């Protein structure tokens, strides 16, 4: 069975972008893949986190993933820092990866803006650790949103350089698995900005813990333009907010954007937003309710993560032992 690996940072509550870009695919891939899903708490540290919040959010995200349909018995769910193979391989990849490659990473450039000097070294080498996450398991398929494509390409550069430098065929190239719809969900307040956990406005995103009324209100207040919906895709050109809402509807209701416009073209945003809120509530509300139930039993959540980490370590440790052997560390 093909091995899948993916990760999410426990830095806030997962939102609709995380769900449609990643989590929904993770759940679907479980049917016919061997899946390893990871709360990447070490990646979270690349930006300062309040320690108590980081611990709480790691549990909360575990609850959201379980509520979304991740099966921790057939597959593996754990937090990154519990398996030391990630940092062991991460260091070796820091030495394989090139500064020139990291300098091209658009996510780093977007995050630091003009204030590059003041960010952590960890944030800069973050993609090397991400490559280690995947390759410590020799996973080959990586379900992620569009913003992670470039990091997966960098992981493949590491694969090629590692095999070349040590004259081995040890790692195999990996494949990003990006959804056809909603691979890049935009903010509800600005159709040109990605929906993000770090956006200061809670109105900009739908959290997977939002109740029905909150979802309805956020959709009602979502930024739009005064024109009715067009009947064809061309009519969405230069209308980023309208395009985002149509894409969300399509992704939530398993339609293409063309089918959504065939149904709702000509409608004003009032009735369209009402229909969109209905499909969204039907999908998100059960997740929110189950998350809150699971959060009452942190003992169970910790047990899931501990068991997952032990199973993950049993796969990753022998692989990373072999890498250390290849590069010449005396063991
Ligand atoms: P993060 O929250 O940055 O750890 O992202 C976890 C996963 O969600 C990654 O696969 C991202 O590509 C995906 N993701 C994050 N934000 C969005 C978004 N606005 N649209 C689509 N996918 C997203
Ligand atoms: N960098 C990813 C993000 O911010 C999270 C991540 C860390 C990841 N390690 C990974 C995703 C390995 C896929 C595979 O979204």
UniProtKB/TrEMBL annotation:
Pfam families: tRNA-synt_1b. ATP binds at residues 9-11, 17-18, 145-147, 185, 194-198. A motif ('KMSKS' region) lies at residues 194-198. Its main location: cytoplasm. Keywords: Aminoacyl-tRNA synthetase, ATP-binding, Cytoplasm, Ligase, Nucleotide-binding, Protein biosynthesis. One of its GO terms (cellular component) is cytosol. GO terms for biological process: tryptophanyl-tRNA aminoacylation. The keyword Transferase does not apply. A motif ('HIGH' region) lies at residues 10-18. It catalyses: tRNA(Trp) + L-tryptophan + ATP = L-tryptophyl-tRNA(Trp) + AMP + diphosphate + H(+). Homodimer. Catalyzes the attachment of tryptophan to tRNA(Trp). Belongs to the class-I aminoacyl-tRNA synthetase family. This is Tryptophan--tRNA ligase. The gene is trpS.
């Amino acid at each position: 069975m093909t091995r899948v690996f993916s990760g999410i940072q426990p830095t806030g509550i997962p939102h609709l972008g995380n769900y449609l870009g990643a989590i929904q695919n993770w759940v679907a891939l479980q049917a016919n893949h061997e899946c390893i899903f990871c709360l990447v708490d070490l990646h979270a540290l690349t930006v300062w986190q309040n320690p108590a919040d980081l611990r709480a959010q790691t549990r909360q995200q575990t609850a959201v993933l379980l509520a979304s349909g991740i099966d921790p018995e057939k597959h593996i769910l754990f937090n990154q820092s519990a398996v030391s193979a990630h940092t062991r391989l991460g260091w070796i990849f820091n030495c394989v990866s090139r500064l020139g490659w990291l300098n091209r990473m658009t996510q780093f450039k977007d995050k630091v803006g003009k204030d590059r000097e003041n960010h952590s070294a960890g944030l800069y080498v973050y993609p090397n650790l991400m490559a280690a996450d995947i390759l410590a398991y020799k996973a080959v398929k990586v379900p992620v949103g569009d913003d992670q494509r470039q990091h997966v390409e960098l992981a493949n550069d590491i694969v090629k350089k590692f095999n070349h430098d040590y004259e081995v065929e040890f790692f195999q190239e990996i494949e990003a698995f990006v959804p056809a719809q909603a691979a890049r969900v935009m903010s509800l307040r600005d159709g040109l900005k990605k929906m993000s956990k770090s956006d200061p406005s809670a109105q900009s995103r739908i959290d997977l813990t939002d109740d029905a009324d909150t979802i309805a209100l956020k959709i009602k207040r979502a930024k739009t333009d005064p024109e009715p919906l067009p009947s064809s895709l061309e009519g969405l050109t230069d209308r980023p907010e309208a395009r985002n809402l149509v894409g969300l509807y399509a992704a939530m209701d398993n339609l293409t954007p063309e089918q959504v416009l065939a149904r709702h073209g000509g409608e004003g945003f009032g009735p369209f937003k009402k229909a969109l809120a209905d499909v969204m509530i039907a999908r998100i509300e059960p997740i929110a309710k189950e998350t809150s139930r699971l959060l009452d039993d942190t003992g169970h959540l910790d047990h899931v993560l501990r068991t997952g980490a032990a199973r993950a370590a049993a796969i990753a440790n022998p692989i990373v032992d072999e890498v250390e052997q290849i590069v010449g560390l005396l063991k």
